[in-house]
Amino acid sequence: MDTISAPATDPADYRDQFIPMRKADILKGLLDGGTLPDLEQQEKFRQLCRLLGSIFHYEYFEQLERLRDDYFYFNPQLDMQTRFEPMVLDDAYADLTDALTKVLKGANFVALSEREIEEAHRQRPFLRVNVKAPVQDFRDVRFFRRGRHKARMPLRRWFGLYRKSIDVEVFDDVVLLVAMKPMSAMKHKWELRRMSERGIRPGAVFIKYFRNIRHMDLATLFPNVRVVMSRLDRLMLWIPAVVLGTPLVMKVVSTISVLIIVLGFYFGLWAAVDQQQFNGALAAAGALTALIGFLMTQWVKYERRSLKYQKQITDNVYFHNINNNAGIFDYIIGAAEEQECKEAFLAYYFLLTAKTPPDQAVLDAQVEDWLKKNFGLDIDFEVDDALAKLERLGVLQRHADKLSVLGLDEALARLDHRWDNFFTFNRAVA
C-alpha cells in the first residue's frame, strides 16, 4: 500500500497554516484597522481584492476540470463492466493524486503520516473494541487534515460507576482517499468475488470529506471497517457461558448414550427399551435442548453487542460526513481559492501600509500578530506562498531582502491587464 510524506515537524508542535476566518471577515478587519482612512483608498483595496479573487477563481477552474477528467476512470458509479487499459489508468491515477494533493495543499490541508494514523488506531478510550479494515483490499490510502482543536469528552467505565473527562484532539476537516485494488493486482478469484458482492468496482477510488473528527477515530473512517470486541467483552460473554454451560454439557454427555439407544429403538435398530431408559432419554433431550438454547442466547448477545459498537462507528461517520467522491472537488477548489485570497489580501495590505519596507520574517510576524490580536488565531502564516502569488501576478517588488508592493492604482492596472488577457480572441477580430 502506498504512503505519502508528512510534515517534517513533529505533529505535537506543528502549527496550522489554515486561516478559518471568511474572506469578508479578513477584509473587514483590515479596513477597520484604520491604516487606510481614506474612503477612496479603501474602495480601491476592495476592488483589488475582488480582482485577486477573480483571477484565482479562473486559475483554479483548470484544476477543477483536471480533477473531474481524471476521476472519471475511478468513479465508483461507473458500470461494473467498464474496462480501461492499465496504462491509461496508471497515468490517470498519478495525475489525479498529484492534482488532488496540490489543491488540498492550496487549501492548507496537511498529509497525515503513517505514524500518526497508527497512533490514532491504538488510542480507543471511548470504545472497548478494536476496529479492523482489511488493507489488502486497498491499492492506496491517504489522509489529509486541516485545522485542529482540543475538546473535552466524558469517559465512562464500569457501567457508569467510573467517570472522568479527558482532552482529545479533534481535526476540523479530514479528507480520506481510498483506492481499491485494480483487477490486474488481484491474485485470487475470491478477492474479485468479495468486491463484486459488495458492489464495488475494481480500481474504484473513494474520496470522503469529514468534519470534526477525533484523532483517535481516524481508523473508523475506512469504508470496510469492522469491529472486533475487546478481550474484556469476550470474557464477559465466555465466562458465563463456561460457568452456566458446563453443567448442561456434563448432563448431556452423561445421558447421551441413553438418548442414542432410544433413538435406535424408534429407527428399528433395537428391539425394545425399558421405562428407565426412556425417562433418561427424555432428560437427555431436555438437557440438549437447554444447551442449544443457551448457546443461541450467548450468540445473540455477542451479535447484539457487536451491532451496538458497529452502530457507534456508523453514527460517527454518518453525522460527520460532509461530501463524497466527485462532489468534493467543487468544495475543496472553493476552499483552496478562499485560502489563496486571504493570504494574498494579508500580504499585500501589510506591505502596502508598511512605513518602511520589511523583510520576509518581519512581514510574517506582523501578519501572525494581527491574526492573533484580532481573531485569536495562533497560526503559522504561509508567507512564502503569499509572496509567491503576489510576485507571479507582478505586484511584488524586491530590493535585496526588503519587500514592497505596487501602489493601489498601479496594482489595479496590472491585475486588470492580466484579467483582460486571459482571452485575446476579440483583438484578432478588431
Description of the structure:
The protein is of the alpha+beta class and 430 residues long. The chain has a domain at 231-310. It contains 12 helices and 9 strands. It has helices spanning 23-32, 39-71, 86-106, 114-122, 189-197, 231-266, 275-318, 327-352, 360-375, 383-392, 408-420, 425-429; strands at residues 110-111, 129-132, 138-157, 162-180, 205-214, 226-229, 321-324, 396-399, 402-405. The strands form 3 sheets. A 5-stranded antiparallel β-sheet has the order 1-3-4-5-7. Strand 8 (396-399) and strand 9 form a beta hairpin. The radius of gyration is 32 Å and the shape is elongated.
The residue-averaged pLDDT reads 79
The largest sheet is: 5 strands, antiparallel
The helix tally amounts to 12
Overall shape: elongated
Poorly predicted regions are 1-12
Termini separation (Å)?
57 Å
**Computed CA radius of gyration, to the nearest angstrom:** 32 Å
Pairing-aware structural class of the strands and helices?
Answer: alpha+beta
Report strand %.
15-25%
Q: Secondary structure elements and their pairing?
A:
Blueprint: H1 23-32, H2 39-71, H3 86-106, E1 110-111, H4 114-122, E2 129-132, E3 138-157, E4 162-180, H5 189-197, E5 205-214, E6 226-229, H6 231-266, H7 275-318, E7 321-324, H8 327-352, H9 360-375, H10 383-392, E8 396-399, E9 402-405, H11 408-420, H12 425-429
Antiparallel strand pairs: 1-3, 2-6, 3-4, 4-5, 5-7, 8-9
